[in-house]
């Protein structure tokens, strides 16, 4: 029988960060994500990456 479940990855994502947003902030984030065909999580990750890249 074949293995079930998600395949293993070289870089597992096991660290969590919790952020609280106001309703207004969350709606702006969600709208941006939808307009760019991203999830909210992907949008936050890309934002963090851009901020870190601009510091270099």
What does this structure look like?
- The protein has 56 residues and is mostly helical.
- The protein has a domain at 23-54.
- It is built from two helices and no strands.
- The longest helix is centred in the C-terminal third of the chain and has 15 residues, at 40-54.
- It is extended, with a radius of gyration of 15 Å.
- The mean pLDDT is 93.
What does the average pLDDT come to?
93
How many individual helices? 2
Please identify the structural class as seen in this structure.
Answer: mainly alpha
> What's the overall geometry?
extended
Span between termini:
49 Å
Largest sheet: none
CA radius of gyration: 15 Å
Write the topology of this structure:
Layout: H1 23-35, H2 40-54
Helix pairs in contact: 1-2
Question: How is this structure best summarized?
Answer:
The protein is an all-alpha fold and 56 residues long. The protein has a domain at 23-54.
